[in-house]
Fold this protein.
Amino acid sequence: MKGVIIGGGIIGLSIARELQKAGHNITVVEMYRVGRGASWTAGGMLAPQAEGLEPGTFLDMCLESRDMYETFVKALEKETETDVGYWKCGIFCPAYSEEEEHQLLARMKQYTDMGLSGNWIDRKSLEGRYLSLGKDIRGGVLYPDDAQVDNRLLMIALEKYARHRGIHLMEFTQAEELIVQSGRFTGLRTSKGTVEADYCIVAAGAWSEKFVRAHIFPIKGEMAAIDVDKKDIDRVFFGSRAYLIPRKDYKRLVIGATEEMVGFVDGNTVKGILQLFTGLKETLPHLANRNIQEIWYGYRPATPDLLPVIGKTEVENLYVATGHHRNGILLAPVTAKIIKELIVDGIESHYLEEFSISRFRKEDDGQN
């Protein structure tokens, strides 16, 4: 079987790896270099609990993927001899107000009632642990099972896997038009010629709407990185004012992230970077004295309900795996598993019904 994947990010390359392992001949079409879009600009948090996701099917899928991660990265590291910086450091959610404290405690109780881990740490305990602490922080919730991965190292490993295992990477190539005959996908026209294939998977992130009506739109995010030492911070801080991600090797601290619905507007802004550094100073003030390493931005692929779009489309042998919004890095293992099982084994995951592209059909019909 021959498959073509539009999009060489975390989702596209994770799916390509699974399908290649199943013996399929896979081509990935990427408009830039593989792995250098939203997957490169992300934070790498594996944080279904710290994100405060509502109990339900989406949380279940995120928890399943988080639980898959250690096995996923260990296998990839062995295959590529590349450390991807996976760290089950736990994620701490600080409360900057009494209202936030009540909200965090209520969500923590929901999770602990489900059998998940979580505990409150008061300000006094925090003061003994960190060199400084924002004056508004009252305490916070620690989710010890949330984790992180260095998403850039992960993309380097997935790229290495693809290049060494015979996955054909068509980089700096525009996917231009799906070829559909009698309701069935047969090929993809690109800026470098036509790719004939038995099936196609659209995993083009915020650019997916060009190929399939999945109601995908970009949410821009700005981020920064600074120098950090081990004595500064011992785990991820995920707060309403900023999130702070110390890499496992302590070579940098990633600070994120703004959210703006401005379309594809390239560049960092003074407003965005000020927001990040203000959040940093209001969380761990002493870090304001660290050197800046980098600032950057990216585009998250979002949908109207902020849930992913995964599975079949109305075109036979055309599939979609996009719209993961803030959770693309987290959801890569489970998304790859779902798509591989669907195409190779004919198994339809129970997640597919809820995240089907068909959930937008009523809205589409109303516009026609």
